[in-house]
Amino acid sequence: MVYTCHRDKNCQINKVTRNRCQYCRLQKCFEVGMSKEAVRNDRNKKKKEVKEEVVVPESYELSGELEELVNKVSKAHKETFPSLCQLGKYTTNSSADQRVQLDLGLWDKFSELSTKCIIKIVEFAKRLPGFTTLTIADQITLLKSACLDILMLRICTRYTPEQDTMTFSDGLTLNRTQMHNAGFGPLTDLVFAFAGQLLPLEMDDTETGLLSAICLICGDRQDLEEPQKVDRLQEPLLEALKIYTRRRRPNKPHMFPRMLMKVTDLRGISTKGAERAITLKTEIPGPMPPLIREMLENPEAFEDSSDSGESSTPTPPGPPPLLTLSLRERPATL
C-alpha cells in the first residue's frame, strides 16, 4: 500500500491530527525507529487474524464535558452572530452593475459594519471556555491573527448562491460587484469562491461556531507566550467538532477533515486580505477606522514615512488600545 501526502510532506502529527495524513504518520514512525519490515509483517498478521477481530463501531456520543463545551461555543456563536433567516434583508442600488476602484458610500457602510463585526468577534472569544484564562497578550495575539479568518467565515456563511449575494449582520445585502466596490477589490472573487465551497458542507451554527473557535484558539500563532496552553484549549474543540460532525452525518466521515481543511483555506484568504487592507489605505480619503486598523494590520504599515532627514518628535503615550479595553470588559449579555 502506498500513502500520499497532499500537502508538503511535513504535516504536524500528534494524538489529535495523526489520522489526517497517513503518509506523514508513517514517516514519523520510521523516524523514531520502526522498521519497514515490521509494517509488512504487521499487515500480514492482520490478514491472518481478520476472522478473529470484532469490529467496534466508533462512538459518536459526546462526553458530558464535551457536550457542555459544544453548548457553550454554540451559544456564544449564536448570540454574537444571528443566522441569515433571522435578518431582515435590504439592498442598495449603489454601484450595483459596474466595478469601480472604490465606492466611498459603500466603503463607509462596510467599514462601519466591519467594526461592529470585530466587536462581536471579541465578545465571542471572551465567551469561549478558557479563553480569558490566557494572558491578555496572548488573547490579543490570537484575536489579531484570527480576526480576518472569522470575519471571512462568518460573511461566507451568509452567501446566497441564487442571487450571488452576501448579507451583513444588519441585513444589508450586496451582490458581487458591490462587494468589490465596497472595499474587497481583487479579493472579491476569492471570497465568493470560498463561500461556494462551504455550501456542500452544509454546516450548521454549532459547526460554524466550533470551527471559528478552532481558528481562534491555535497554538501555532507567532509570538504567543504560552502556546502549549493554547494547544490544550484547542484539543477538546477539535474532538468536539469531530464527534458532533460525525454524529450529525454518520454516513459522511469525510466531512470533519474537509471542515478542518477550510481553516488552512481561510488563512490563505486572510493573508491576501491583510495585503488588501494596506492597499486600501491609499484609496480611502481619510484614516482607516481605529479598531479595524488595530485588529487587522501591523500599525507600522499605516505610518506615514517622513521624507525629511529630521528626526521626528517622539509621540507621547496614548490611551490603551481599543482591543485591550474590550478584553478587559466583562462579557456583555447580548
Automatic annotation (TrEMBL):
Keyword check for Transcription, yes or no.
yes
Query: Annotated region Disordered: where?
Result: 295-334
Q: Which SUPFAM superfamilies match?
A: Nuclear receptor ligand-binding domain
Q: Where is the NR LBD domain?
A: 65-299
A cellular-component GO term for this protein = transcription regulator complex
Q: Which Gene3D superfamilies match?
A: Erythroid Transcription Factor GATA-1, subunit A, Retinoid X Receptor
Any Pfam family from its record, for instance, is Hormone_recep
SMART domains in the record, alphabetically? Answer: HOLI, ZnF_C4
Q: Superkingdom, according to UniProt?
A: Eukaryota
| PANTHER family (alphabetical) | NUCLEAR HORMONE RECEPTOR, RETINOIC ACID RECEPTOR GAMMA
Tell me the subunit arrangement: Heterodimer; with an rxr molecule. Binds DNA preferentially as a rar/rxr heterodimer.
Q: What is this protein called?
A: Retinoic acid receptor gamma
Q: Which organism is it from?
A: Periophthalmus magnuspinnatus
